[in-house]
Amino acid sequence: MSTNILEVSGLKTYYKTRLKEKVFAVDGVDFELEEGKTLGIAGESGCGKSTLALSLMGFYFPPLHYGSGSIRISGSDIMKLSKEQLRSKVSGREIAYIPQAAMNALNPTLRIIRFIEDIMKEHRPELSKKQVWELAAERFKTLNLPEKVLRSYPNELSGGMKQRTVIAISTILNPKVLIADEPTSALDVTSQKAVIKLLKDLLDKKYIRSLVFITHELPLLYHVTDEIMVMYAGEIVERGAAEQMIFDPVHPYTKKLMGSILVPEEGMKGQKLAAIPGAPPNLKQVPPGCRFAERCSYAQGECKTGKVPIRANGSNRYRCLFDTETLKEWYANEQS
Amino acid sequence: MNNRDLLIRGRSLTKVFGYGSRKTTAVDAVDFDFHKGEIISIVGESGSGKTTLAKMVMGLLKESSGTIEYKGQPRRLKSHADRKRYWKDIQAIFQDPFSSFNLFYRVEKLLLDCIKLQGLKLSKEERYRKMREACSFVNLKFEELHNKYPFELSGGQMQRLMIARIFMLHPKVLIADEPTSMVDACSRSTILDMLLKLRDENGMTIIFITHDVGLAYYVSDTIYIMEKGKIVESGPAEDMILNPQHSYTRQLINDVPKINSNWDLGS
Hints:
Chain A is an alpha/beta fold. Chain A has helices spanning 49-56, 83-90, 112-123, 129-142, 159-170, 189-204, 218-224, 242-247, 252-259, 324-335; strands at residues 4-16, 22-34, 38-42, 64-73, 76-77, 95-98, 177-181, 210-214, 227-232, 235-241, 310-313, 316-319. In chain A, the strands form two sheets. In chain A, strands 6-7-8-3-9-10-12-11 form an eight-stranded mixed sheet, sandwiched between helices. Chain A has a four-stranded antiparallel sheet with strand order 2-1-4-5.
């Protein structure tokens, strides 16, 4: 039996607006991640993907606040720890987080090695500067990054190299889980591939055990992750094995999302891409029924009011009023 | 095809930045023929000179050597009147939609400016009809937006508003410099479909710059592949993607994750 490395249940986190309203960007999310597995999170912009990633770290800075629910890393609830304990015990060691555009956050006046020394000063104070250098050089070598990067300033590196450096720095303490929030979105395809290769290397060499990968590039998720979770308006609408999610999605939203995939393969040209009309709902006033109902082309009257159950299709879980057969029939009719 | 009208032709176009030992050749003796009513993609890595080439075509950068012909005549940008005439025909949308709007203007004013730019004298109803038409072209609701400032819109909405402005100005040539790199996959397909619509309904020539061959393949008629300032391969989209000849083209195609075949990550 493999053990769950990350367990999240009923997590709700919200942003407080200036008018003291609560906007739940993550609204009751449950999932668990097995050791050695990778999980992809997909969805449109503004669906709460990044907020979920931020919430998983256990740090809450206003306007983001913790609502309810639990986050367990290897069985221990991190919401019960104090901020100080979180910082020294959990972040970096248990769980590491690479925020969006992390590569632009490097202080331009410091050499790369200084960032690593900084981490080590907190977490492994017994190491001398020379030992830190050796450790860092060794790690960079195994990840196919040139050693001279350590001596460089951030502005001397290209975007792709900076991103890879950031990933190497944040995993230097061998965290159990790495959360990568859109690590490739500002890069061109060639650097993107290098970053993906680095993440795979980290997993293969067991520097990290599990990976949570957030992106809206579905073909990427298909190649990197074992499971894909699709978020919409703060909720998980479908979750399942990557293969099944790409080729055989059930939820109408996932279906549309998968229809917007663009790959340079035969038959792509002239094919109609799926576009979803409208925008995700305003989370200040969440619609009562299914949150996707307003934009869903299959929506019926009851979708907008009724409570939406979570249904199963094999190992897939999805959130819809209708069962798999009904939905599949509709898709088939639409195609013909 | 013989019935393709040549619109822009470049011959041994070169752009050199810097002097002496710091000289870098961003675009190196590039030849191209852009035909009317086509979508032309320029694909390459970052730093391969795609944007520099586009800026030269647009007339924002002066070429170091080489010539550009527009409608069969050598392009003249000497006088103010020349430039004004040329820029009436050629427009651009950029990567970052946030930087292309005046942040102090409401959407209504931004769109109204397009009408003013064309020097049209229209009645109030006419103006609003035009703005509504442009908004519905890009699936935006004018009534919901007209009173908002640019920062209140999402990235996808802004990029679509940008296209609405293009629709109102109806230039002959549109240069789209990575218009989809800052938006998510859904908005991306909407934007690409709009570019196709602009080509089909308005006969616009679109120069589409991207690093993703997948997008280029979907949207374009002709693809030019650039590597380090040189065009290494060019041709109709179908041939280029399904039967690439140059090793760099193959590498670019290989770098894009696919779903029906394995993705070789290399060693």
